[in-house]
Amino acid sequence: MSRSVLYRVLLFVVLTAATVVFLVPTFIRPAPAFWPWRQPVRLGLDLQGGTHLLYGVDIEQAIDNTVDRHVRDLERELHDAQIGAVTAEREGRTVRIRLANKDKRQEVIDLVKERFPTLTVSPSQDAEADLALTLDQREAKRIRDNVVDQALKIIRNRIDQFGVAEPTVQAQGTDEIVVQLPGIQDPQRAKELIGKTALLEFKLVATGPQAGTPEHPGPGVQVLYGKGDAGGRRAYLVERRTLMTGDVLTDASVRPGTATEGMAVDFVLDARGTKLFGEISSANVGRNLAIVLDNYVESAPTIREPITGGRGQITGRFDFAEAQDLANVLRNGALPAPLKLIEERTVGPSLGQDSIRKGVLSFVVGSALVVAFMLVYYRGGGVVADAALLLNVLFLVGAFAAFGFTLSLPGIAGIVLTIGMAVDANVLILERIREELRLGKTPRAAIEAGYERAWYAIRDSNVTTFCSGLIELIPPGLNIDFVGLRFKMLLVSWTLILIGLVSIYLHGGLNYGIDFAGGTMVHVKFAASTPTGDIRGALSRPELREVVVQDVGQGGKEFQIRVLGAAEGGSTAIADAIKTGLRDKFGEGTYDVLRVETVGPKVGKDLWRDATLAVLAATLVMATYIALRFELRFGIGAAVALVHDVLITLGALSIANMEFDLTTVAALLTVVGYSVHDTVIVSDRIRENMRKMRREGLATIMNLSINETLSRTLITSGTAILVTAALFVLGGTVIHSFAFALLVGFVVGTYSSIYVASPIVLYLEGRKSPR
Question: Which CATH code fits 482-508+604-767?
Answer without folding.
Answer: 1.20.1640.10
